[in-house]
Amino acid sequence: MSTIPAPSTSPNWSSILTALIGRNDLTSADAAWAMGEIMGGNATDAQIAGFLVALRAKGETVEELTGLVEAMVATARPLPLAGEKLDIVGTGGDRHNTVNISSMAALVCAGAGARIVKHGNRAASSSSGSADVLEALGVRLDVGIERLGDVLDAAGITFCFAQVFHPSMRFAAVPRRELGVATAFNFMGPLTNPSLPTASAIGCADRRMAPLMAGVLAARGVRALVFRGGDGLDELTTTTVNHVWEVRSGRVREHQLDAEDLGIPRATLEDLRGGDARHNAAVVRRLLAGERGAVRDAVVLNAAAALVAYDESSAGSLTGRMAAAVVRAEESIDAGRAQSALDRWVEATAG
């Protein structure tokens, strides 16, 4: 578990807010101090709102986001799970209301042999969040923290319900809701999985924030692909070209990725449009049963990115590695292994 870095000076809200209003960057330690005050319930609503707005107006840095994330992880309920772990998650906020692509990709990756510890929550800006659709599929989310490791061992996939692991977020709930604008908190969820996964595939709709998120992961020393669809999706898209930031060995490399180069045809955003949890669960079932089309193409593309992040080898071009991973993702569906992963998951959480 991460620990909150000690501030280099003795910060207070006046010095923090004065720095931000003056468009001066904070150190990681000072950002962590502010987040620690928020998570500890020691900050007023006015201080929280002022901090978030001033930070957003100035523009967050990798160092600041790292401090915020480390402080948030330090206050989370721990989930010590040994071994390699992969998370597949998006920031949300793209306002396109697509089907639950990352949840389906997680099942496909579990079917392909990856150990998935998915971090998620209920819908905030869409009709169906990951928690909503998983419940509609029969996965119980009220499993005790002490059983999540057993579920992972039995099914190859488990779920960290964000509201369970980050109860201190309640202290920022009112200011965030009343502000009604995106803040740093909108980008911290995918970076604060309490199991500290060794690999991540993260979609970010915000073009400016995506490379900053990659920078946080690079500082942590994990493997990751952070990506943004050129159409604004917080997923890899099949409608146009994607921007990808690959994190390896503490370094970030930027790529462009076109699904057409992998033999995946163009689609439209309307082809990927979703609905409520019941509707999206039906889409999941049809995908796992072998239905082809634009949804399957998008899921396979995103699952392939996650498998590339999970793979310890980085030999060859990103396009070449993605092409090999696409084959693995398709086999997971066609051989029924993704469906089996869901069946095992439902059974493991039923007790």
TrEMBL record:
* Record: residues binding Mg(2+) 1: 102, 235
Q: Name the InterPro entries for this protein.
A: Anthranilate_Pribosyl_Tfrase (IPR005940), Glycosyl_Trfase_fam3 (IPR000312), Glycosyl_Trfase_fam3_N_dom (IPR017459), Glycosyl_Trfase_fam3_N_dom_sf (IPR036320), Nuc_phospho_transferase (IPR035902)
Q: Where is the Glycosyl transferase family 3 N-terminal domain?
A: 15-76
**What are the GO MF terms of this UniProt record?**
anthranilate phosphoribosyltransferase activity
The EC number on file is 2.4.2.18
| Cofactor dependency | Mg(2+)
Q: Any keyword Metal-binding?
A: yes
- Domain of life, source organism: Bacteria
- Residues recorded as binding anthranilate 2, renumbered to this chain, are 176
Pathway given for this chain reads: Amino-acid biosynthesis; L-tryptophan biosynthesis; L-tryptophan from chorismate: step 2/5
- Gene3D superfamilies per the UniProt record, alphabetical: Nucleoside phosphorylase/phosphoribosyltransferase catalytic domain, Transferase, Pyrimidine Nucleoside Phosphorylase, Chain C
Query: What's the family?
Result: Belongs to the anthranilate phosphoribosyltransferase family.
Please state what the protein is called. Answer: Anthranilate phosphoribosyltransferase
- Provide the species name: Arthrobacter halodurans
Classification from the root reads: Bacteria, Bacillati, Actinomycetota, Actinomycetes, Micrococcales
